[in-house]
Amino acid sequence: MGKTLADLGVGTRARVVGFDRGSRDYRKKLLAMGLIKGTEFMVHRVAPMGDPIEIEVRGYNLSLRKHEAVTLTVEGVSS
Predict the structure, then answer these.
(1) How far is Cα 41 from Cα 57, in angstroms, rounded to an integer?
(2) Which UniProt keywords apply (predicted)?
(3) Residue 31's closest CA among 71, 79, 77?
(4) Using alpha carbons only, what angle is made at residue 35 by residues 34 and 41, rounded to the nearest 5 degrees?
(5) What does 2-23 look like in DSSP terms, one character per residue?
(6) Residues spanned by the domain of 54
(7) Which residues contact 72 (CB under 8 A, 6 or more apart)?
(8) Total domain count, the chain
(9) pLDDT bucket at 69, cuts 50 / 70 / 90
(10) What is the sign of the dihedral through the CA atoms of 37, 70, 40 and 8?
(11) For residue 79, what pLDDT band results from cuts at 50, 70 and 90?
(12) CATH of the domain at 30
């Protein structure tokens, strides 16, 4: 199992490499929001208990619950 969005800290830049767990319908929802393989994003904010996580992706901010963030497998990218 690789690193997930839930593992990243504020200010981290990363790229979507795939989807780990979750329902097919939820994966479709993430794809519809622009989180496709290869998409780069930055972690903008993380709430005190780690839920939700706000990312900046494709020019807009998107908040995901922690249980949603663990479905996104990511890799770090250099600034």
Answers:
(1) 5
(2) Iron
(3) 71
(4) 100
(5) --BGGGPPTT-EEEEEEE-SS-
(6) 5-76
(7) 4, 5, 16, 19, 20, 30, 35, 64
(8) 1
(9) confident
(10) negative
(11) low
(12) 2.30.30.90
Q: Which of 11, 78, 2, 61 is nearest to 37 (CA)?
A: 2
Residues 22, 43: Cα–Cα separation, whole Å = 21
Contact 73, 9 (CB under 8 A): no
Task: Give the burial string for 58-78 (b: 16+ CB within 10 Å, else e).
Answer: eeeebebebebbbbbbbeeee
Residues 24 and 32: beta-carbon distance below 8 Å: no
In tens, the pLDDT along 13-37 reads 999 998 876 667 778 888 888 888 9
How much is the CA Rg of the chain, to the nearest whole Å?
11
> In a 3-state reduction of DSSP, which class is residue 76?
strand
